[in-house]
Amino acid sequence: MHTKLITDALTTLREQKPLVVNITNYVVMNNSANALLAVGASPIMAHSRLEMAEMMSFAGALVINIGTLDSVWIERMAFAIEQANENQKMVILDPVGCGASSLRTDTSRRFAALAKRLIIRGNASEIIALAGEISQSKGVDAQDSSSAALTAAASLVETYQCNVVVSGETDYIVSKDPETLEVTIIALDNGHAMMPLITGMGCSLTALTGAFAAVGETTGLAAAAVMGVAGEIAAEQANGPGSLQVALLDTLYALDVDTLAERLKLSVVNTQNS
Q1: Regions of the chain short of the pLDDT cut 70
Q2: Which domains does the chain possess?
Q3: Is the pTM of this model over 0.85?
C-alpha cells in the first residue's frame, strides 16, 4: 500500500509538474531549485510581498525555510503563509536551527501555528526543540538520533494538526489519518552516510516535500522515499560529497518507479489511536 502511494505520487508529479514557491535560505537556493527541476517539478524562488498573493493563487505549495533568518524575511514568510492559507495550499516548514537560538525557535513556532495545512520537515534536534523538549543541537546540525524525536514529532502532529518528517540515518514520517485519527509512524532506511556532508541536503528534501504535497501526497512519505533511494544510488557512483551532489541530481532525473519500489526499505513502526 505505502509503496504504491509513493510510486503513484512520483508518476503524478512528473505528469503535473507542479509549481512550488520557495522562500528559502541563500545557501541552498540553487540546490533546492535544481532538485525540484530534476524530479520533475517547477520551482520559483519568490520572496517579494508584492507578488505573493498572486503567486499563491496558482502555485501548488509553499516551502518556508528559515535558514538565513532576519527581521525582514520573518514578516515576508508570515505574509506568504497567510496567502497560502487564503488559497488552501500546503505549507512545508523547515525550522532550520530551531533550538539553536530563541529567534529561530520562536519563529518556527509562530509559523507552525499560523499555517492551516502544514508539513514540518526537520532533523531530530529541530523537531525536539520545536516541540518544547530539550535537544542537542550544534548550530543547524542535529546531535540527536532521529528515533529520539518520535515522541516530539507525535506531539507536533497533535499540536498543529500537521504531518512531520524527521530526517536522519533513518527517516521517520509521522502522520495522522484525518478520518480514523490514527497516528502512523513509518521508517525509511534508505540514504547514505555521505549525504549529511553536502550542505542543504535536508533543504532539498523539504523542497521535494513541497512538490509532492502540491500533487496531493501530504504525508511527506513520497519525498523522503525518493530522496533516500536517489541518495543511495548516487552514492554508489560518487567518489565524495562533490560528485555525490551532481550524481544525486542525475539520479532524481532518471529514477523510475520500478527502481524506486525495488530499492525501498520501508517499515511501519506503529499505529496508535489519537
Answers
A1: 133-144, 271-274
A2: 2-273 (3.40.1190.20)
A3: yes
